[in-house]
Amino acid sequence: MSAPTGSAQTGSAPKPRVSARIGGIAESATLAVDAKAKALKAEGRPVIGFGAGEPDFPTPPAIVEAAQAAAADPKNHRYSPAGGLPELKAAIVAKTKRDSGYEIAANQVLVTNGGKQAVYQTFATLLDPGDEVILPAPYWTTYPEAITLAGGTPAVVVTGPETDYLPSVEQLEAARTEKTKVLLWCSPSNPTGAVASRELTEAVGRWAVDNGVWVVTDEIYEHLTYDGAEAVSMPVAVPELADTCVVLNGVAKTYAMTGWRVGWMVGPTDVIKAATNLQSHLSSNVANVSQRAAIEALTGSLDAVDEMKRAFDRRRRTIVELLSAIPGVECPTPKGAFYAYPDVRGLLGKEIRGRHIETSLDLAAVVLEEAEVAVVPGEAFGTPGYFRLSYALSDDDLKTGVTRMGELLAEAK
Ligand SMILES: Cc1ncc(COP(=O)(O)O)c(C=O)c1O
């Protein structure tokens, strides 16, 4: 029998069944949209999902083969060092130099169970209760939860399409208080696909150094840039930042390896040591088979990555063109990652098929029910009035889905 709602029966003072800390965590909106789309699909409805942030390609064969060999080798059936296999750490050191020009040592690396664990552990390691984290919005939906769970407070800086969804140093400075400890930086960005220029990255990094603000820089989309845009690593742009900077990365997006769960943190040795202690009690080593697969990914050729990138680039152009043709929708051209972030504010306050549309959340619900297309509303990213569409799906589904949504939205009055 279940306990009475809200509290366990423990004498006179009822205690909440779930702690306030964990009870306050919101469900991941992106995963929720994806789950709803999959449930409707399972009912036989032809839903096209633009919700999930994962490549539709299989992991390249050489990586899968390395994992198969690793699974057959008993040495991988045992616990391994909590901080990561030494061979993988060495591969991360070499890859970081190759891809971003950042020179690091192996004791600055902690291998994590996906980039998500790297985000959580970074904030848990850096923040004390009351510390503030400047968080430019639109932001990836996990950041505010990870900050809050670590006892920190997100100080959100809202940006819009007029600045390519990137904050200026002036905006960051206006959000800085004596409690500010960290700036979260994500370029190329999820959800907007914005890529910060070298000038902006340098200016922001210099502002951080001058004001003693740490930078947590999420570089997981570093390989996915288009139209000549360049992903600039924050501590490379401003080398003085190295001692107060944590770089987050992983194999998920670059190598179509979302299910393998390998990410990492790169930071100063004291921070990495502390985070490794945390991980040693939390989850220990990442699955050895996945780590061996990641070694193959990082030491192998980038040809498969280039091929995926060409497909993303083609889909990016298609989605921007189709979205821009819908009345009431404005879509800047993203320069990185695999997301479009159109402004749908032109459709708010209207009616579609007898339903009044007040917010982008309402609009996304109508689009899912009536057009059978799943998108994530901007509410999930701290900026209501927008949609995020991942274009990491097949060309055919992409065209059919956006066309279907466009036909529905054209009915708005
Ligand atoms: C900006 C950003 N950082 C980190 C991650 C974490 O990826 P994973 O945990 O799959 O490695 C994601 C995934 O959506 C992301 O979009």
From TrEMBL:
It comes from the Bacteria. Pfam families: Aminotran_1_2. One of its GO terms (biological process) is amino acid metabolic process. Its EC number is 2.6.1.-. Residues 46-404 form the Aminotransferase class I/classII large domain. GO terms for molecular function: pyridoxal phosphate binding; transaminase activity. Its cofactor is pyridoxal 5'-phosphate. Keywords: Aminotransferase, Pyridoxal phosphate, Transferase. Belongs to the class-I pyridoxal-phosphate-dependent aminotransferase family. This is Aminotransferase. It comes from Pseudonocardia oroxyli.
